Amino acid sequence: MKKLKFGVLILAMLLLAACQGAQQTDGVKSPAPQENTKISEETPENTEIQRDPDRKTIDTIQLSMTVESVEDTEEKLLKLTEEHNGILESSQKLQQGNSYENGNYRIKIPRDQNDSFYNALKPFGKITSETKGSDDVTVPHQNTEIRMNSLKAQHERLLELLDQAESMEDIIALESKISENITQQEELQARLDDLNSQIDYVSYTLNLREHIREAPEVEGGFFSKVILALQSTGVWFINVLQFLVIALIYLLPYILVGLVIAYLYRRYRKKHPKTYTEHKGNTFGKWMKKDSLGTEKEKQDPPEDKKL
Question: How far apart are the first and last CA of the chain?
């Protein structure tokens, strides 16, 4: 009877904790609509993200900029990120022929340093496009916190019951519940940490593009143009030669196999020459035979009786 009362007490306390969590969840406000606005090319300076201090949002900014040199701008960008305690998540540079480069970067900047970072970033080049977004995660964040507080309160009550337990069966059951409670707390804490890391930082997706480098105009007279043409021809010839050498390296194994096959075929023909060749246009059935010197001699067909 004592065990039954103890089990009923445990069940009642667990149900009470669940009801408290549900009541707190019902009191949470509904999420605000997501903000996602685009800023035209003419007004790139208007980039301040309006944010209610009582709400939790994940803010993102996508920028496309035209710069003089991607390599030089990247060096300044990395230095600026370090100065603002930012995080460089990824970077990629693409060479578009010999004309220009593209650079793509993903950067996270602390929210309290975002304005300073952006103002220092603007002089790096011309902003051609900008998109900012704000994802409201107030409700998921609050629900997770409420659930975490409920699990912590449940954990304390389970510890109290464990101190009062007398039988081994009750102790094992309570330890199992405590272990399950701790696992749920760890999962919720990881979710909270992830949300907080996204809330505390502004995520930048930055694309850098160089000005298209136009070919220089040829100054001077006829001979200057001839010299420039010869220089261009020399560069073109070197590029073609490099291509041929690389292609030859790739084809070399196949060429070697072909040479070996040709050599073996010639040796085979030397060892097995054609002994008899039919004399074309011979209506009398004459046939040719090669002598030891390799010259062809005409020979009559054998008599019919010998053929039989």
Answer: 121
Q: Which domain holds residue 114?
A: 35-137+200-210
Q: 63 near 176, Cβ under 8 Å?
A: no
Is residue 45 assigned to a domain?
yes
Question: Are 57 and 206 in a shared domain?
Answer: yes
Flag the least confident range among 28-37, 82-91, 256-265, 296-305. 28-37
Q: Check whether residue 254 and residue 117 sit in a common domain.
A: no
Read off the pLDDT of each residue in 179-208 and give the average, rounded to a whole number: 93
Question: Does the pLDDT at position 291 exceed 80?
Answer: no
For residue 67, what are the β-bridge partners? 210
Q: Taking the CB of residue 70, how many other CB atoms lie within 10 A of it?
A: 21
pLDDT at 233 over 70: yes
* Dist. CA 106–CA 104, nearest whole Å: 7
Backbone dihedral angles phi then psi of residue 152, each to the nearest 5 degrees: -65, -40
pTM of the shown model: 0.51
Query: Which residues are bridge partners to 207 per DSSP?
Result: 64, 104
Contact 144, 195 (CB under 8 A): yes
Amino acid at position 147, single letter: R
* Residue 150 vs residue 275, higher pLDDT: 150
How far apart, in whole angstroms, are the C-alpha atoms of residue 294 and residue 260?
27
Q: Name which of 107, 106, 65 is nearest 82 in CA terms.
A: 107
Q: What percent of the chain has pLDDT over 70?
A: 62
